[in-house]
Amino acid sequence: MGNASDLHAGIGKGRDSTLFAGAIDRMLGRIDATSAAVGAEFPLSAAPETGAWMTAPDGRWTGGFWVGQLWLALQATGDPKYRRLAEQALARLEVRVARDNVLNGLVFYYAGAVGALLHQNAAAASLGKRGARALAQRFKPGPGFIPLGHDSGSLTGDAEGETNIDGVPGMGLLWWAAEAEKNPALATVARNHVARHVELCMRPNGSLYQAALVDARSGAVIRRYSPRGFAEDTSTWARSQSWGLVGFVQAYTWTRDAVFQDAAVKAAEWWLGAVPSDRVAYWDFDDPAIPATQRDTSATAMAAAALLKLSRLMPESDQARRYADAGRLTVRALVEHYLVPTHEGDPRPSGMLTEGCWQRNQGMSTRHELVWGDYYLLEALMLLTGRLERTL
C-alpha cells in the first residue's frame, strides 16, 4: 500500500483553514506576550483569570516546551527574533544537563533536537547532544530503563527502580543524537527504555499506568500505579495515556519498529474509545465526579498532535483517516472552546489554552494554561496548516 501523505494533504483546509490559521496567530501573539512577561525565566503555568505566569529560572522539566514553542514560531514566521530568544533560553537550560532526572529527555529533545531538526541550529544541536549523552549514562541494566531519578521531584519509591511513562517521549532525544553523532549505543538505550515501558505500563486493553516500581537488581515488578491519578492502582490519569501515546508515536517515527506501532495504535484506540463525545479529556478518565470535575486540555492537545502524526506514519487506510480526522476534530474543539477568546468580550489574554490540569491531587494549577499544552496545540495546528511537514 502507498503512503498516506496524499490522504492528509487536504486536512486543515476548507472550513477549518481560517479557524486554524487564526488560532496560530493568537498563539504567536501569546508567545510574544509571554516572552515580554517572563524575561529570563521560563513559563510553567498561567492563572486562568489573568494569564499571569508562574515561572522558574531553570525551566524545571518543562523548559524544553518553551524553547520548542520558540522554534515552532520561527518555523511559522521566519522572524529571527524567535531564533535569538530560543538561543538565549538554551543557555539557561545548560544547568539541567547534570540533573538526575529522566525528564531531561523532554527538556533537551524539544529545546535541542527540535531546534537542530527544524533550523539546523548549532547551539541547539550542541546542547541536545550533551543532554543525550548524560541521559543515556543513567540507563540501568537491572530494571531495564532510565530510572525516574533523584532530581525528578516525583519519587514515591526506590530512586533506582522507579519509572514514569512521562519519560518515554524524551527518548526521541537519544534517537536523534544517535544519528547526529553516529552512535548506535544511544539508539539501543532509547529502544530498551521505551520497550520496557510498553511491558510495564500498558494494560491489556491499551490504557496506561503512569508509573512502575521494580527491583533495581533483578527488574522484577513490584507495583504498577498512577500516583497522579484518581485511584493509584486502577484509574487512568489522562496524561498517562497522552504521554504514552506521544512517546510510542515518537518511537515509531524514529524506528519504524512494529512493537512501537502496535503500542501507539493500542494507546490511540483506547483514547478514542474513552474520551468524551466533545473530544476533550477530563483529568482522569475514572473520576466518579465526571462531568463535574476538571478537564485537561494539555493531555488533549498532546493526544491530538500524536494522532495527526500517527496518521501520517501509517499506510493509507480507513484507520489512518480516522486518526487524522480525530486529531483535526480534537484541535477544532480545543480552539473553539478553550483557546482565548472563547466568547465575545473575553477579557483574558488572547491565545491562552485554558483548562489544563497539572496536578489535581495536589491542587496545583488545576484549571490553568500549561506550557506543554501550548506546545502541542501549536505543533498540531502547524501540522494541519502545512507550516510543519516534519513529524517530530
Structure summary:
With 392 residues, the chain is mostly helical. The chain is built from 13 helices and 6 strands.
Helices and strands in order:
Elements: H1 5-8, H2 17-38, E1 42-46, E2 53-56, H3 63-77, H4 80-93, H5 104-119, H6 122-136, E3 162-164, H7 172-181, H8 184-201, E4 211-214, E5 221-225, H9 238-255, H10 258-274, H11 297-313, H12 318-338, E6 369-370, H13 371-385
Helix pairs in contact: 2-13, 3-4, 3-5, 3-13, 5-6, 5-7, 6-7, 7-8, 9-10, 9-11, 11-12, 11-13, 12-13
What is the number of helical segments per DSSP (H or I, 4+ residues)? 13
Please report the distance between the alpha carbons of the first and last residues. Answer: 24 Å
CATH classification class: Mainly Alpha
Strand content: 5-15%
SSE pattern: HHEEHHHHEHHEEHHHHEH
| Cα shape | globular
CATH topology: Glycosyltransferase
Would you count the extended β strands for me?
Answer: 6
Q: Can you walk through the features of this model?
A:
With 392 residues, the protein is mostly helical. The protein has one domain: Alpha/alpha barrel (Glycosyltransferase). Helix content is 52%, strand content 6%. The chain is built from 13 helices and 6 strands. The strands form 2 sheets. A 3-stranded antiparallel sheet has the order 2-1-6. Strands 3-4-5 form a 3-stranded antiparallel sheet, covered by helices on one side. α3 runs parallel beside α13 (371-385) and α7 packs antiparallel against α8. It starts with a helix and ends in a 7-residue tail after the last helix.
